Amino acid sequence: MVDETPPVLDRVFYALSNSTRRAMLRQLTGGQRSVGDLAAPHAMSLAGAAKHVRVLEEAGLVARQVRGRVHLVRLQPQALQQANQWLAFYTRFWNQQLDALENLFAEED
Prior knowledge:
This protein is of the alpha+beta class. The protein is built from five helices and three strands, in the order H-H-E-H-H-E-E-H.
């Protein structure tokens, strides 16, 4: 079977596979945060948080700006939009399957 998933989606889904990174993305919905701000709720070092941010950045989910010693991170919604479009195909597929099943049950009644 040929996998037609673009490499960018592979990186997005890999980044989203970790609960800490998903939590960091949620934090960023409130606006730009420093890596230290992102690390704080997870009781992790700045180096650990920076590794998570790097994965998010490589997936295109966040952008980082360096101001002196402070690294500021902001959400980049375009990559999430691509993942959502990919998932939407399967949402439509399963909705059609469930509608067909519902119709079968309705015919039996």
